[in-house]
Specification:
The chain is of the alpha/beta class and about 210 residues long. It has 2 domains: about 130 residues, Ribonuclease Inhibitor (Leucine-rich repeat, LRR (right-handed beta-alpha superhelix)); about 60 residues, no CATH class. It is built from 7 helices and 4 strands; from the N terminus they run E-H-E-H-E-H-E-H-H-H-H.
């Protein structure tokens, strides 16, 4: 299970629901939306939040950015494989420039064009204190976290059934196939190919 915090030197973001405040991916077709009671939260605590695999979409993303204008408790936000497209970034920059606590945003596995990636690059340029990870090849820790997740799925039939039904792994493979490997380091290229190969084998499909 990928756990929140991997990119900040702790553990990787969660992608399977086990409880607590982090929705975890059970299925691409049946997205979770806070199915358990929310815990009491210290208003001054800095928290991570994983929405990986949730059907947030572009409209949901725009609303989330607006909410983050005034948020002062969130430090890490994981939005991998959440169905966000370029239109979901329309208000991203002004909203997150107004936020003072967020230090990490991961948003990989979403269908963003070059224009969308430029928006994220602008955010990174204007807010250097915020680490934005938008592509698999940009962070070796991310690639390793997904490789570890695949190994856990292989060892857990229940996880495998949920993920196959949801098509989340197929989405990851599709994104990996579209990467321009010529722009990646040899090490990243090897990890990308390994991840693509492992997921394809897990799904019983040709790479």
């Amino acid at each position: 299970m990928l756990r929140a915090g991997w990119a900040m030197g702790r553990e990787p973001p969660s992608l399977g629901f086990r409880g607590g405040m982090h929705p975890e991916l059970l299925g691409w077709g049946g997205f979770l939306s806070w199915p358990l009671p929310r815990p009491r939260v210290d208003p001054v605590a800095l928290l991570p939040c994983s929405l990986c695999g949730n059907c947030l979409g572009s409209e949901g993303a725009r609303r989330l950015w607006e909410a983050l204008r005034e948020n002062r408790t969130l430090e890490e936000l994981y939005l991998d494989i959440t169905g966000i497209t370029d239109s979901g970034l329309d208000n991203l920059v002004p909203c997150l420039l107004a936020n003072s606590t967020l230090r990490l945003l991961t948003i990989v596995g979403n269908r963003l064009s070059e224009a969308g990636q430029r928006t994220l690059s602008e955010l990174s340029r204007r807010k250097p204190g915020l680490k934005v990870i938008s592509t698999f090849e940009s962070d070796m820790g991310l690639l390793q976290a997904y490789l570890d997740w695949v190994e856990e799925i292989k060892a857990d039939p229940d996880q495998m059934d949920a993920v196959k039904n949801a098509d989340a792994l197929r989405c990851i493979v599709s994104v990996l196939r579209d990467l321009d490997e010529s722009r990646t380091s040899p090490e990243a290229r090897a990890r990308i190919r390994e991840l693509r190969r492992e997921i394809s084998a897990l799904l019983g499909e040709k790479e």
